[in-house]
Amino acid sequence: MYNSLIEIMSLPFMQHAFMAAFFVSICIGIIGTFVVVNRMIFLAGGIAHGSYGGIGIAIYLGILPMFGAGIFAIILSFLIAVISYKNSERIDPVIGAMWAAGMSIGIIFIDLTPGYHADIMSYLFGSIISVASSDLWIMGILDFLIIILVSIFHKDLLAMSFDREFAKLRGVKDKILYYMLIVFIGISVIVTIRAVGLILVIALMSIPPFIAEKFSSSLYKMIYISTILTLIFTFSGLSISYFYNISSGATIILVASIVFFLYLSILKIIQYIK
Prior knowledge:
The chain is mostly helical. It is built from 12 helices and no strands. It has helices at residues 2-9, 12-37, 41-50, 52-61, 65-84, 92-112, 120-125, 133-162, 164-169, 174-213, 219-244, 248-273.
């Protein structure tokens, strides 16, 4: 086992993959927690899938797909924030439409681009072992930005997450924070794309924080546990995918899903015994 780990860590592309998994875990631990607490999972899914439009346009223009996805994700985040701020009860159809429109735009622009694009699947389902140094720089910078801004506004974000009306009474500028949080979700999508892809990003963004919530007495503890769980899921899935030569993104999500369903099963058994 020890020799196998040494073998993995001696490979440059696996070193990049584990570093990417580390960056993804920090991002998911922080933003995934706010997504779960604020019940924004479907919203996060809309941004993630809609970002495929940016990938298609970027490929058509011959620029970096992650750059296209990032621009598209931030634009979608602002649009959803503007529409949902005062109409959160009726936002689901809008998100669904943006989700479908983004995917459609991506598919059409890829169809219009001459040649076969083998790398497209890595953006849909993830390919963390193909992460380049430039991707790591982008992930690291975005993680740093998230950590700094969340650290500055953590008290206000905490108040807004649990009771928006109370936060307003305290003088919290909840509109700005709401916009910022949704943009953070868009940034998280960019960080996570290369690990598990746009299709599977919702699972990774929701499973670790959901499990962590049951073992946490505070939001900060939930963030820490969620980050550790994501690290475990990504590192385990990455190692398994290497040894069995299978898709890394799908393996990471499968590991997370197995733990999730085991956790739910144990809860049911405990409740039944009681």
